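Lecture 7 notes: from sequence to structure.

We start with a single chain of 313 residues. Read the sequence below before looking at the structure.
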Amino acid sequence: MRRIVLIEEDLDLLDNISCFLKAKGFDVFTAIDGYFGIQKILHNKPDLVICDVNLTGLSGYNVINTLKQIPSTSNIPFVFLSSKTDTNDIKMCLQLGADNYIAKPINLNDLYITIEKRIEKFQNIISVSENEINNDFNNTQSGIFILNDLKIIRVNRKFTAITGYELDDFINCTITEIIVPECRSAIFEKIEKILLGAIPVIDTETKIRTKSNRIKSILLYAFKRHINKNEVIWCSITEVKKENQKGQISVNITNREKEILRLVSEGLNNVEIGKNLNISKRTVDKHRETLLYKTNTKNTAELMMFCTKKGII
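Now the structure, written as tokens:
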């Protein structure tokens, strides 16, 4: 069921909109102030946010500014409601990143049409094409597996080589079949945080048990991704080499990320990189955000210096 967070301090209007949207099949979470609204958004990860501009305390402007600074909420469609119809007010809302501005009194049918259009547009943007998935899945030296509700729904050949299992062994298996017992609770906690949007990625060392019952140390990197409009967790693993176990720094950079680094070093922007690699600009943005996180760098200049020093590019 599609989820909407509605933030409105007019209780009658809050109730009217909420009841209307529930009748249309939405799961609606309501809040009467900005602080509580942000909590609802972070906890429920809605498909769209509806927010009054003139909230007491934390205004609607502050709400959208906060959401735009959080990676997990920065792209959620956002619709402002307001009794103000001045052109400058509307312009301000759109400049802050709102997708729509609807003037009060609200026409519920118009609101519903706006919601449907915005959610559809957002889903089209975040749904990754099958070609992109196949490229990322196969064009890597890392083992890749995809989780849906902790079940492994897809693995690549490199993952099979690392674990010793054949592809058919992973049909309907959960991640518990791979992670050793003493590491499971820590990994499960991190996965839950990713699903809630509390952290953007998992980047940690853990241990797995292979089919031959051998224990291997691996670097696990994971993040949320949308595939065919379904939210999954994309996981990448590489074996920890002996030199890394002695304390050397290891950064798990995939082949795709190396391609992007090379093109960045050549001065291409994200749109040009996307066209060069036949992937979307949004995918390039995600890879670059991931690279900054992996390397603990703050900007492109620091990233290039780090990768040059480590011989990555």
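The beta strands are 3-7, 27-31, 48-52, 78-82, 100-103, 143-148, 151-155, 201-209, 215-227, 230-239. Keep this in mind for problem set 3.
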